Amino acid sequence: MDLRHLRYFIAVAEEENIGRAAARLHISQPPLTRQIQQLEEELGVRLFTRTPRGMELTQAGELFLEEARNIRSVVEQATERTQRAGQGKLGRLDIAIFGSGILGIIPRLLLAFRTAYPEVKIVLHTMTKAEQIEALRQRRITLGFNRMLAPLPDLATELVATEQLLVAINESHPLAREESVSFPMLAEHPMVLFPTGARPNFIDKVMRLCEEAGFVPQVSQEVGDAVTGVALVAGGFGICLVPESVTALTLPGVVFRPLHDTPPNCRIDLSCLYRADDQSPILTEFLETVRAFHGAHVAGHSPGIQTETVWDAGI
Amino acid sequence: MDLRHLRYFIAVAEEENIGRAAARLHISQPPLTRQIQQLEEELGVRLFTRTPRGMELTQAGELFLEEARNIRSVVEQATERTQRAGQGKLGRLDIAIFGSGILGIIPRLLLAFRTAYPEVKIVLHTMTKAEQIEALRQRRITLGFNRMLAPLPDLATELVATEQLLVAINESHPLAREESVSFPMLAEHPMVLFPTGARPNFIDKVMRLCEEAGFVPQVSQEVGDAVTGVALVAGGFGICLVPESVTALTLPGVVFRPLHDTPPNCRIDLSCLYRADDQSPILTEFLETVRAFHGAHVAGHSPGIQTETVWDAGI
DNA sequence: GCAACACAATACCTTGAAGGTATGGAGGTT
DNA sequence: AACCTCCATACCTTCAAGGTATTGTGTTGC
């Protein structure tokens, strides 16, 4: 049996006349007669009674008509769903984020994608950079968000945003009195660094910037992520350099101050990481969203807009 | 798209290798390659990624695999159900019964059929003989139970059972004292007759029998059906001749007495009526059941068995 | 009652697509 | 570098779907 048989059967059942049904199907009458005979023979069931006025469904034929219509609609839905899946509009996207990645820009990006592709189920996984690379290689995730990415042969990156660096300072700290701080002012103040883990990382960036400013930072503590770092600032462990998205985290007693006279490289990239060989349409659509979002973000947040922001985390 | 495409797709998806899938399908590799390409092209969706190790499903392919398996099982179920319908094992049977037909043998027959063909839905309609004939012609019913059927050109009959005639008597009536009665004893006693309606009917039969016994009955009342007739006997309207199946109806004050020295034609047929041109397998199977039932009934209830029965309706 | 009609079935031919054989080409392995 | 394992392509064969012409069988209309 064939989908053609079903199409023909439905036409004959509806027209109750082989000639008219053949016209509707744009074929001639004899082949249609044969196809119907074939179908009946294959099922071993008489579907029609032949009358001088045409073809009349038997009871078994009535039942088969319902079934045939049902099959047709199931097939239609299947192709339609598969096509949407092929266009990246239906399916599942496994994304890795890092510890404090849930702050700032990523949620807005995910929301934008979810709005554009409501039938794609986004599954979030919290992973370190090394875990992300491993999971991408094993195809357990499709994409990871990270910072400070060294080029890798089989993985590609897409820049999501570049963020300004801020200093997280305890409100009782002398530097908290400044509207903004400069790099040399950070010398001599004990500093919390993050994250521990695979190099190169944010710590290397901070060390290099301090070096360029002519001093070696006093490291009071190294921690795993930005959230812990800011918590230690709240606890009086020292100051901590953080990307601006961390200001989404409000902890009592912590204020954030911008860095003035910053060198041009005193910004930190947020990128996403994916398999260079991944052709999946959902990934393609997601990267498209990332690019659009990045463009809008750069355009919308032109130089100076950050001065509007209140850096104090408040209570 | 074709059911063949689905079969081939499932094989390739399961084997993850065109060569092995082709072997499983008993075709060679190149046509299978082409069929898969065709399917992808028709859907406009890449279902597989070609790797050096074989064929790997894309996300859209995974979804289509589920859909394809689903379609396959829907098609299988449809053919299976249609085949059962074609064998008369699945479907609907519209049967007409007459007023008091629900008494006696018909329920047992219906129960036997229902047990043998549990998936055939029996729908009962109460109709007079004339209504049955009309409904059969319009195909609103497939079969009707009736008595006293005159042969009709387009309708066929099948004998279900022949029943003895009994006399329903009010317990205070003089005849109630007899163990059994003979036809001449009925003369002079007012008699209730049924049914009014299309001739020939049971009334004609009773009139003829009385005539053969040498008297003309005193008709006290004509009513529509046996139930009403027996109710009038209970009310003292007179005696009433009924087929034995009416004894299933117990009314206070009514006793039933057999007729002894009855002529051989003093029995009444219960037949079923159906379209002579009806080829429906369900009807065929039902008639088969009727014949088996009739045979067993005749064999099981050999002469004399009725003497065991208590004719008093009791309270 | 005969002719005309309407419908499905049959006979025979044509064509297109599925299937087969042989071979190419790309990526990985020994 | 040679070989192996895949899938893809080229080209041929065959079978079945589709077309045309015709038959056969009931029904309708004059």
Automatic annotation (TrEMBL), chains A, B:
Keywords: DNA-binding, Transcription, Transcription regulation. It comes from the Bacteria. Gene3D superfamilies: Periplasmic binding protein-like II, Winged helix-like DNA-binding domain superfamily/Winged helix DNA-binding domain. InterPro entries: LysR_HTH_N (IPR000847), LysR_subst-bd (IPR005119), WH-like_DNA-bd_sf (IPR036388), WH_DNA-bd_sf (IPR036390). Pfam families: HTH_1, LysR_substrate. Residues 1-58 form the HTH lysR-type domain. Belongs to the LysR transcriptional regulatory family. This is LysR family transcriptional regulator. It comes from Aromatoleum toluvorans.
